[in-house]
Amino acid sequence: MTATDYIYDDPELGRFHIRVSFRARRLTFRAKERELWVTIPAGASVAEVKRAIDSLRPRLRQLMSAPKRPPVGWDYRIDAPCFHFSLAKGTASRFFLRREGEEMQLVCPPETDFSDAKMQDWLHRAVAEAMRRRAKEVLPLRLEMLARAHGLLYNKVKINASTGRWGSCSARGDINLSLHLMLLPLHLIDYVLLHELCHTREMNHGPGFWALLDRMTGGKARALREELKGYRCSF
After folding, report:
1. What pLDDT sits at residue 103?
2. Bridge pairing between strands 83-89 and 103-108
3. Cα-based distances in Å from 211 to 60, 67, 218
4. What distance lies between CA 145 and its chain's CA centroid?
5. What is the pTM of this model?
6. Is the pLDDT of residue 130 over 90?
7. CA-wise closest residue to 6 among 31, 40, 33, 30
8. Degrees (nearest 5) of the Cα angle 113, 116, 118?
9. How far apart are CA 118 and CA 235, in angstroms?
10. At what angle do helices 117-150 and 186-198 cross, to 10 degrees?
């Protein structure tokens, strides 16, 4: 495969934008503007892409039917237990983030055109950046507190923008946490952090893992897992 970008039209799911990345190690899918974008490793064949689409078809169908993201405008707000966000009208011609007590605010020029599609893309990235900043304040400290309370050790923690999973833990004990955790109630944030901390001892989801997580959650591990399914890893 010599091209770096091409289009694949699926009879059911529609258009896939295929992008080849020399840094990618696996196929990754994301939805944007009701079309699907796929990043593939260099050397991956069209047949491999089609097989991946077929194997993930139920998940991709669900991804395409997900509600559209709400437009950002003057009345846009996020009021989650650990993340409060709003827009404020500024007096200058620049955008900037600021803190007002417990609330993150995006200050926008008074003439901001919220109907422009490119502006909406930028505004959603700005919301994500505000959420990332808050996540960096909250999640590492919370993880450290829980690790000490339960006598668990991890190597390092990173905040990412994943919309596919709330968190992950590598074999080296590196924990990755999605900034979208800031949209959850605190008890579910703690559940995800404890889930990943358990993987520093049990790198699978076998009986030993669930027994450990049950001890840490007062026997509520599976109930918390079911409750978490009611939330989307995005905003």
Report:
1. 94
2. parallel
3. 32, 36, 10
4. 23
5. 0.73
6. yes
7. 40
8. 120
9. 18
10. 60
What is the distance between the alpha carbons of residues 22 and 39, in angstroms, rounded to a whole number? 10
d(CA 105, CA 194): 30
Region 135-158: mean pLDDT is 97
User: What is the helix (H) or strand (E) element at residue 41, kind and residue range?
Assistant: strand 35-41
Q: What's the confidence (pLDDT) of residue 35? A: 77
Q: How confident is the model at residue 160 (pLDDT cuts 50, 70, 90)?
A: very high
Measured CA to CA in angstroms, residue 103 lies from 49, 68, 79, 221 at distances of: 43, 25, 9, 31
If one compares 66 and 184, the residue with the highest pLDDT of the two is 184
What the block records as the tokens of 222 is 């599976």
Cα 64–Cα 70–Cα 75 angle in degrees, nearest 5: 175
Query: pLDDT by residue (tens digit) across 32-87?
Result: 766 788 898 888 888 888 899 899 888 888 777 666 678 999 999 999 999 999 99
DSSP helix/strand/coil, 79: strand
CB 57 within 8 A of CB 78: no
| H or E element at residue 100 | strand 96-100
How large a percentage of the chain has pLDDT more than 70?
95
Mean pLDDT of 5-22: 84
CA–CA gap between residue 37 and residue 66 (Å, rounded): 15
Residue with tokens 């803190």: 99
211: left (phi over 0), alpha (psi -120 to 50) or beta: alpha
Instruction: Report d(CA 18, CA 41) in Å as an integer.
Output: 11
